[in-house]
Write a structure and sequence with these properties.
globular, alpha/beta, 4-stranded parallel sheet, 5-stranded parallel sheet, binds FE3-S4 cluster
Length: 399
């Protein structure tokens, strides 16, 4: 891979140990994927910052980089941590877990990260430019940035996004190349997709059927809005390695690709495929908790949740996960108070998958996201029941 004179000196340690280590990681990855050179990035999103996920070895890795004077060269945001960084005692997070989680965040902040702690940076002011090169970890955010904004990022891992943030560059391969962004499959969806759960499950089925490549979804009938697109992308990225999809007449690159659709493999998805995925991912019917916000809830979704709750206590523990920026807005609008008045919680900085829910007694939960269902069952052994918001509303209001 070609390196400029400055990059060579950086690799030799002339700009400090942290930069040399970071560049070494990026160059190694670049060589594996046959990248020809490095390219500058506009910003980075680092995942793998929850103490639950990275444990003591991850904490030591970040601490060591901080001790080596690492500083982020581009604006850098963070994925959810393992707890609400302020209200962690309220949901029963153990003290020693909290201490280590706060240490991780303080090292990352010390290197220059913004304490966003969210998987939806695009909802809180980080709106990628069309064609901008980024280094984002967090598959649901990556697919959103590539597909909806037409920005360019691979599905980085936590360490490679961290390394890119330090040097302000990534290796030019994969999603950074125009040739890799062309559709590989045409997807036709039978019938209309009506709610956030169906979008999320449709995504899951697309990912399962294609697993690798770039789907082009055409002649789509369904209620398109940002929340549903967020659910669709997260679903696709859960069951596959896909980092980009095109949606006819909606996503920015779709218009220019009309001539690239000949001779592609065609896939049809019917309502029964979506129902089958729902059955496969649901394994519980007596949940104690309703966990919403995978990916993190938007202000609009919090408004919806606040408005469907009647003036009486809920039958289950309702926990809503969002970013601290959306939380602040929801406080001002009165949505948080409304949810708390009926016994619910709005939790920021973390999510149901990366916080130690099982350890604090959450064992059966209702969710409206295929990603949450998949990871809660596979990583945490929590039993899940998939229901759209509309159904949850009916059940709660009838009780
Ligand atoms: Fe976000 Fe956590 Fe889901 S990081 S996409 S809420 S698993």
């Amino acid at each position: 891979m070609y390196l400029s004179k400055i990059e060579e000196k950086m690799l030799d340690g002339e700009y400090g140990e942290a930069k040399a280590l970071a560049l070494k990681l990026i160059v190694t990855l670049g060589e594996v994927f046959k990248a020809k050179k490095l390219i500058s990035i506009e910003n980075a999103q680092i995942a793998g910052i929850s103490y639950k996920t990275i444990g003591d070895s991850g904490l030591e890795f970040i601490k060591d980089l901080y001790a080596k004077n690492a500083k982020f060269a581009v604006p850098t945001t963070l994925n959810p941590a393992g707890m609400d960084l302020e209200k962690w005692k309220e949901i029963g997070i153990p003290e020693d877990f909290a201490k280590k989680q706060l240490e991780i965040i303080s090292f990352l902040e010390g290197m220059g990260a913004e304490k966003t702690c969210s998987c939806t940076p695009y909802l809180i002011g980080v709106k990628p430019r069309f064609n901008a090169h980024l280094a984002w970890a967090e598959s649901s955010a990556v697919i959103f940035a590539n597909s909806i904004f037409g920005a360019k990022t691979n599905r980085e891992g936590g360490p490679s996004a961290l390394a890119s943030a330090i040097i302000g560059k990534t290796a030019m391969y994969g999603m950074h190349l125009k040739s890799e962004r062309k559709p590989t499959h045409i997807v036709k969806v039978e019938g209309s997709i009506i709610n956030e759960l169906e979008f999320s499950l449709l995504g899951y089925v697309i990912g399962e059927k294609i697993s690798k490549g770039v789907p082009f979804i055409n002649k789509f009938k369904g209620k398109i809005n940002l929340d549903n697109l967020k659910a669709l992308g997260a679903g696709i990225a859960t069951s596959s390695g896909i980092a980009l999809f095109h949606l006819e007449n909606i996503t920015p690159e779709a218009k220019t690709l009309k001539n690239n659709l000949k001779n592609l493999e065609k896939i049809t998805i019917e309502k029964k495929d979506i129902e089958k995925a729902r059955e496969k991912l649901s394994n519980e019917e007596s949940s104690t908790h309703i966990l919403l916000g995978c990916p993190h809830l938007s202000l609009n979704e919090l408004k919806k949740i606040a408005s469907f709750i009647k003036e009486k206590s809920l039958t289950k523990n309702l926990w809503c996960f969002t970013s601290r920026k959306i939380y602040e807005k929801a406080v001002k609008k009165g949505f948080v108070k409304k949810i708390e008045n009926v016994g619910g919680k709005v939790i920021k900085d973390t999510c149901m998958v990366v916080s130690p829910l099982e350890a604090i007694g959450v064992l059966k939960a209702q969710v409206n996201s295929s990603k949450a269902a998949y990871y809660l069952s596979s990583l945490s052994n929590i039993k899940v029941e998939l229901k759209p918001l509309e159904e949850i509303k009916k059940i709660e209001n009838k009780a």
